[in-house]
Amino acid sequence: MAGPVIVGVDGSASSLDAVDVAAREARLRGVPLRIVHAFGHPSGHVPSGVPPWSPADQGLEPMVRGGLAEAEQRAHAAAPGIEIARSVVAGGALEVLEIESRSAALAVVGSRGLSGFSELLLGSTAVHLAAHGSCPLMVVRGRPEPAGPVLLAVDGSPAGEAAVEFAFAEATLRGAPLVALHVWNTWSERAYEGPGDPLNAVVANADRLREAEQHLLDQAVASCQAAYPQVAVERRLVRSRIRSTLLDASQEAQLVVVGARGRGGFTGLLLGSVSQALLHHAHCPVTVVRGKE
After folding, report:
1. CA-CA distances (angstroms) from residue 36 to 8, 88, 114?
2. Which among 293, 292, 262 has a CA at the least distance from the CA of 277?
3. Are the C-beta atoms of residues 154 and 164 closer than 8 Å to each other?
4. DSSP secondary structure, 159-204, as one string
5. What phi, psi does 12 have (nearest 5°)?
6. CA distance linking residue 244 with residue 250, whole number of Å
7. In the structure, what pLDDT confidence band is assigned to residue 120 with cuts at 50, 70 and 90?
8. Where are the beta strands (DSSP E) in the chain?
9. pLDDT (tens digit, 9 = 90+) per residue, 49-79?
10. CB pairs under 8 A, 24+ apart, for 218-224?
């Protein structure tokens, strides 16, 4: 929990909504809130003959400072009494947030915005930040002020262990129950391994696979359930399509927690398709948690 909660702002309605959520997250954790506005070209992408921007050089400092002041007012209203710092940082939004994440407990961003944050959920930018940031990334999206349990997308991978622990900690902070949801189907596992293994091979014995997936779910939450006995946990095993099932479940959750990579992902893929689907389409905020490299 060391370090502040950071939130990227650009003056858009979405980023101001993110400020509200980030302020409450900072209060929950008992840490300061840091409001960050990135200003300028990303490093290495400055057009030839164009100097890096600064608010003072462009005569926009009053506007930028005014936007930060508005964000700070929103934060104080959302979570009175928290410590708040604000800053304008030279560089592209992605670059700035990635650097800021190195000393943060949590990074929070809106689902759409202006200027450098406008493409945050449009392709590689969100993938890069979720995959390379040094702290969990929360994307504020979906219905306003969502209520319900914390929803944990369980994949049983070693990299997903960090997401499990984060979800239990979040449920504790929020005084909320936890739904540990593991979705499986007959494509969840290869029929066999070895040379010549066909890509379309599936497991024919669904009963055996169901037992294996139940064991995977039980093992994934067992250690954290012992460490967080105060958290009411529902272990939910569902045979269905993974992404659509998780998206449907997010309609009744206050937060979805997912690992950056899932089981069966391609080597070197730093953000799985399930994580990306949730970032784009979930009905409540989504936090992506990276596991150990």
Report:
1. 5, 6, 14
2. 262
3. yes
4. GGHHHHHHHHHHHHHHT--EEEEEEE-TTSS-S--STT--TT---S
5. -75, 160
6. 10
7. low
8. 5-8, 33-39, 84-90, 106-110, 137-140, 150-153, 178-184, 233-239, 255-259, 286-289
9. 444 444 445 545 555 667 889 999 999 999 9
10. 219/156, 220/154, 220/156, 220/160, 220/161, 220/164, 220/180, 220/182, 221/152, 221/154, 221/164, 221/180, 224/164, 224/165, 224/168
Pair of tokens at residue 210: 């169901």
Please, are residues 144 and 20 in contact by the beta-carbon 8 Å criterion?
Answer: no
Burial class from Cβ neighbours inside 10 Å (0-12, 13-18, 19+) for residue 192 reads exposed
Decide if 176 contacts 149 (C-beta within 8 A): yes
Q: Which pLDDT value is given to residue 247? A: 97
Q: Looking at residue 113, what is its pLDDT? A: 56
pLDDT band, very low/low/confident/very high, at 91 (cuts 50, 70, 90): confident
Run of H or E residues at 29 = helix 13-29
pLDDT at 265: 46
Residue 4 has pLDDT above 90, yes or no: yes
**What is the model's pLDDT at position 52?**
47
Judged against a pLDDT cut of 90, whether residue 39 lies above it is answered with no
